[in-house]
Amino acid sequence: MSADFVIRVAGQAVFVVLKAGAPLLLAALVTGLIFSVLQATTQIQEQTLAFVPKIIAVLVGLLVFGRWILSTLVDFTYAILNNLHNYIG
After folding, report:
1. Which of 8, 35, 53, 57 is the most exposed place for a label (fewest CB within 10 A)?
2. Distance CA 73, CA 70 (A)
3. How far is CA 82 from CA 9, 24, 39, 74, 79, in A?
4. Into how many domains does the chain fold?
5. Could you tell me the sign of the dihedral formed by the alpha carbons of 79, 82, 83, 88, in that order?
């Protein structure tokens, strides 16, 4: 197992994690932006006001994208474990 191979597998793992987390992060980002604009227009200075909608948005995103996220992670894990004998020897 060479250093290039380890770096390639680690890069694939980072890409899969970013791909799996992107929908939830995007939902939180959009929700936070919307509530920040609403807070700025109404001049409400409460810092904790945007947390509950962000949590709800992430939970809804998890319900919508949960199956896809799980299948992405399972496919990557299956590919790693299925080729484990090639990695060791």
Report:
1. 8
2. 5
3. 14, 29, 51, 12, 5
4. 1
5. positive
pTM, rounded to two decimals: 0.79
Give dist(CA 6, CA 75) in Å, integer: 19
Q: Are 65 and 23 in contact (CB under 8 A)?
A: yes
Tokens of 52: 């509950």
CA–CA dist 87, 81 (Å, integer)? 9
Q: Which domain holds residue 29?
A: 3-88
Sign of CA dihedral 66, 72, 77, 78: positive
Q: pLDDT tens digits, residue range 26-76?
A: 999 999 999 989 888 988 888 788 889 999 999 999 999 999 999 999 999
Phi and psi at residue 45, to the nearest 5°: -105, 25
Residue with tokens 């932006």: 33
